[in-house]
Amino acid sequence: MGCECSKFALYYWTGQSGPIYEAQNPDEEKDEVSDLPAFREFTFEQLRIATSAFAVENIVSEHGEKAPNVVYKGKLENQRPVAIKRFNRSAWPDTRQFLEEARAVGQLRNNRFVNLLGCCCEGDERLLVADFIPNETLAKHLFHWDTQPMKWAMRLRVALYIAQALEFCTRAGRALYHVTGKGLALYHDLNAYRIFFDEDGDPRLSCFALMKNSRDGKSYSTNLASPEYLRMGIITQESVIFSFGTLLLDLLSGKHIPPSHALDLIKDRNLEMLTDSCLEGQFSTDDGTELVRIASICLQYEPERPDFKSLVAALYPLQKEAEVPSHVLMGISRDGETMSLSPLGEACLKTDLTAIHEILDTLGYKDDDGAATELSFQMWTDQMLETLNSKKKGDAAFKNKDFRAAIECYTKFIEVGTMVSPTVYAHRSLSYLMSDMPQEALNDAVQAQVISPVWHITSYLQAASLFTLGRENEALVALREAAILEEEKNAAS
After folding, report:
1. Side-chain half-sphere of 18: how many Cα atoms within 13 Å?
2. Would you kindly state one Gene Ontology biological process term found in this protein's UniProt entry (predicted)?
3. 359-388 pLDDT tens trace
4. Which domain-ending residue is among 72, 100, 132?
């Protein structure tokens, strides 16, 4: 691993473990986030639609439906992917308190955060809306990796970026305190499950833990708690720094090690037990020793711990591969670059509408779960016969590439409203695209997804519509979602 334990221990216990130095930040992170919409209040109906009526398939919480506050993946009316946290009904009975906290957190915008976009407060419902970040949590990549362990350079980048996020939080909280006289912004539950990797592979800190989770106004930490938290039951700035020390231990060891046990290992010079064996040869003795030193002073029993400004300064010199993009270090393919796409995905990426038509025409109604059975048991009234004939005429026009006629026939079928078919919406969506009506095509693709949330065709058609509308970034997100859904479907079949 390029480091001997004796050198680690000698460095730590020979008086070189004093306070972390103050240093000029050579690459100070800009706080502004230019592409985020203003914080807003959503209606419950808007968020119900965004999550396909809070469909189980859209749950992304670590513990699924059993989580005390369930998080759903959703999509707003402008197709922006979001994460929506729905609190337990017993949480936040005080409407004003919830709105005040949500609005305050919504003002903390930074490129190191998964930023809060809005909230909902109707009746007993309390929901938060944040940007959706696609590439899993630090816990997944660090503890439960499938293909390769996280590289040393990436672990150090995580440490730096999260320290930057928390340092920004501290500065913004102080500024807010001077203006409002209210408490500082504190991060209530820092752990590996709160850190997500965005489309570029960069780590971001979830904004959800900036809000308290309790109706009594207290915060409850599920992380290895600081001594003062255990003693008084409250989170302080020193508690957050202690939690950051436990995060550094996670990054160093690749597993959960209680702080007291980690400090005992350092004292006993048994650092092989502390360091992830997967990091063999990836770092020098000096860099390993420095990270241990930083972690240990964050974990001091008495709350005389460094602040985040000095932690950021101390972590900068350890960034030895700063020029390598995060997605390369993480082994994450970026949207539209090395994404593995099926023929349908390739057709959507190129907006090859003719190829899309051939694939949809061949697929027919195979993915219309239950639709054929439902149609066969309908009452055969004159109106029903006319409705079914409209669908048949639409299918014939679609097959013969008479897309204007297909739109007219499918619309008659849809407007009757007695039968629901995602495939009909998909066919009409492509017919709109073929007729140079991309916004109508997008609307139909979204409606098909509401009916069938995990049907990959709907996301592919959304991607093709968004590409046609010139909304490339959103189109790439939809394309990636479609590819993932298609892969999951193929794996299950």
Report:
1. 4
2. brassinosteroid mediated signaling pathway
3. 999 998 888 854 443 444 444 455 566 667
4. 132
